[in-house]
Design goal:
It contains 14 helices and 8 strands. With about 350 residues, the chain is of the alpha/beta class. A 6-stranded parallel sheet has the order 1-8-5-4-2-3, sandwiched between helices. Strands 6-7 form a two-stranded antiparallel ribbon. Helix 4 links the parallel strand 4 and strand 5. The two termini are about 30 Å apart.
Length: about 350
Amino acid sequence: MSSFTFETRASRVIFGAGCLGQLPSEVDWLEARRAMLVSTPGRSALLTSARALLGDVAVESFDRAVVHVSEHVAREATEAAIRSQADAIVALGGGSAIGVAKAVALATSLPIIAVPTTYGGSEMTPIWGLTRTGQKETGRTPHVQPRVVIYDPDVTLALPARTTACSGLNAMAHCIEALYASDANQITTAVAVEGIRLLSAALPLLAAVPQDRQQRAIALRGAWLAGFALGTVQMALHHKLCHTLGGSFDLPHADTHAVLLPYTAAYNRAAARGAMRKGAIALGVEDAPTELLSLAQTIGAPLSLAEIGMREQNLDRAANMAVEQPYPNPAPVTRDAVRVLLDAAFRGDSTYVTTI
């Protein structure tokens, strides 16, 4: 009989096509009267829509969110929130916008409404991240978990194919690591399995027909479950490597997840056989790591760290950084083994993944 401790602080979730229109009532549900909108420059149309919906309640717009949330951007956003006397934050976009909103909440305890436009899952977690002096620092606190999440498949219809692929594999990574998490339980496992099933079904179809509204909704449901899993259990080697490569070497976040996932799954294959079997069943195959690589190929995701900007001379430093602090992982995390993994992922050596 297994023993576990399970605690969750679930966000209020609004799901459905067109539900962005409920943004004013959700701001009112929070009893907020002065909202600051946070986005990236590329989300100007969504920002305009949100401002139109909120009218005078939208008292400030901060559209300079960046990936990996640099310390100076977090400071600027926090100053804007304080200056405008905002009493709520509306994050519009992917992990960059939601990450900046979390940085503001970390400093001010303002509540967040998140409107995710990708599949990264940050909207469902109490996890924050800040990049200081070239290193990404992360932590957990309930203050940063969005109080409300509005999942509207319509705002994802224009998501570029590559972003869809990488973001979807990012979500898949949350599910895979949740299966072998040190504090996994029946609930998180069931959620992760269903997330894998939904994402693996939708992503190939979206690669072929990006504006398929039904598949967008299915993928977004999978991302919701993946984010829940991410926020409920501890992540392991995969997420540690992604944070290291992103925060210290400025690699694109979702792309890094997409490249590394088959390799980190293969790293843990033998040490987490039961979890990998559950993943394989959810994927409808015999071997999960091999299928994750095949899926990446099918949907047009990047296949090597070199392709997304990693420099070979930085692999040694990355391996050293990845083992500086202990963290739970099914297979022992050693510097030499991680270095081998990184070398294979850098070159896109599929034999690392497919050799069982």
